[in-house]
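User:
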Amino acid sequence: MSDVPGPPPASQMLAGLARLGQAVRMEAWRNAGPHNLSPLQADIVLLLQTRRVALRQGDIVTALASTPPTVSDAVKVLRRKELLSADRDPADARAVLLGLTEAGRAEAARLNVMSESLGSAVGTLPPDDFAATLRGIVTLMRELQDRRLIPVSQMCLTCRFFVPDAHPAETGRPHHCNVVDAPFGDGELRVTCPDHELP
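Assistant: Predicted structure:
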């Protein structure tokens, strides 16, 4: 038993991740922009931009691990703000496909600019620590996805184009992406990627 007071290391890590999540959420509220977006509204805009295709509302609920009423309310607001378009699904006339309007795409571009305060904080990590942290995050995400505790993310570890450890480790770029046909290292792992395809 450890002499160090407080909860065990795993609990400490989870508490730390929760605090980091709070910081990201608080920054999202501060970055509401000209449309005064809530964090969920911003998440919907960014999801539609990342996916590059229109989605059904149920797909958004699943991807964001939210609830139908919550997403429905956010979608109504985004449509009133003219950031989302809604068209009938050609495959099912009862379903609606949601996409970004021109104003929605402009808002997504604005949202994709990294917060200066968060970016500078992340920038304080030395390269090896950054790579190890990112590797740990995607490993935890993969495990949580496998346990069905979070939705599947468009990340390297779940992509058919990702080839882990395809190159010698000593190069510092052991993985390979078949989309761009190039090696890359842990510090370049993607948590979300528009070219992602499931195996």
